[in-house]
Amino acid sequence: MVLSDFTFGQGFVMAGSDGGVFTFGNIAFYGSDSGINLGTPVVAVAATADHGGYWLAGKNGGVFNSSTGGQFGDANSYGNPNSLGVNDIVGMVSSVDGHGYWLVGADGGIFNYGDAGFYGSASGLHLAAPIVGMAATPDGRGYWLVGADGGIFAYGDANGSLGSLSGTQLNKPIVGMVATADGAGYLLVGGDGGVFAFGDGNAVYAGSMGATALPKLIVGVARTSDGGGYWLVASDGGLFAFGDAFLYGAESGAPLNASMIGMSGG
Question: Could you tell me the domains of the chain?
Answer without folding.
Answer: 3-261 (2.130.10.10)
